Amino acid sequence: MKWTEQQIPRQDGRVAVVTGANTGLGFETARRLAERGASVVLAVRDAEKGKQAAARISGDVSVQELDLTSLASVRAAAADLRAAHPKIDLLINNAGVMYTPKQTTQDGFELQFGTNHLGHFALTGLLLDLMLPVPGSRVVTVSSTGHRIRADIHFDDLQWERSYDRAAAYGQSKLANLMFTYELQRRLAPHGTTIATAAHPGIANTELARNSPAVARGLITLLAPLLTQPAADGALPTLRAATDPAVLGGQYYGPDGVAEGRGRPKLVTSSPASYDMAVQQRLWDVSEDLTGVRFPVCQAVSAA
């Protein structure tokens, strides 16, 4: 049986925080969760755009300003969320940037790594203690098939200061999303309540590719009917990872079509590199040092 949005269980009484929820995959994820009864927080960089998105969603929806390119903003947003909500059931790390020209975050991190990985790493760590006591709570991080493309964790030059390759930098950030999920799950396992999962949308027709080279954008536009799927369908793997009662911690969901480009969500595997425990743990330690955020969970099992 192919999984559909009709299989999303009722979410009454649950609080869901969705980053990047004013458009695309995040909006579709938030919309469906709200329709199923969740209290949904749209965590977005532009509060006005967030309010416009909230007005298009039926249900209990609020807006939280969050700029993942600024650790100060991440800390402020986490403080606001802690003040507003005694618990969080779902944290969906959805926001991201792709193939951007060489830029840095406000804290000096390469933009894609800083936004896609470090910003979400910090946000998760600052909110996790609101989730640990909540049975069935989940951290869902959105990765990409791009984690397979020329992707590695370049510990010798994480911020791409020596040279910059936008595709490889994106691949690093999306590989980091998966490694973070797997390492987080090992640390959560002894607690027995919260789990960490991951998902990818396939090739979804969203604004994310707006920074791609002109030739690539042209091909996407030309081949979109054959290769891509609407954002509403691209959000389904995230929604399954977030709500399906059968999902287990550390699992990764994506479309079931050719090359996982489109289709209904199913359990998938990530690249061999993503399962390297030693690199996962090293990335975790580096991420804690760069963000200054320590997680309220035990150390993971040694990779030795």
TrEMBL record:
| Keyword tRNA processing in record | no
Alphabetized SUPFAM superfamilies for the sequence: NAD(P)-binding Rossmann-fold domains
Pfam families attached here? adh_short
Going by the UniProt record, its keywords in alphabetical order are:
Oxidoreductase
Question: What molecular function does GO assign, one term?
Answer: oxidoreductase activity
The coiled-coil regions, if any, are none
Please verify whether the record's keywords include Ubl conjugation.
no
The family note in this entry says:
Belongs to the short-chain dehydrogenases/reductases (SDR) family.
Q: What is this protein called?
A: NAD(P)-dependent dehydrogenase, short-chain alcohol dehydrogenase family
What organism is listed for this UniProt entry? Lentzea fradiae
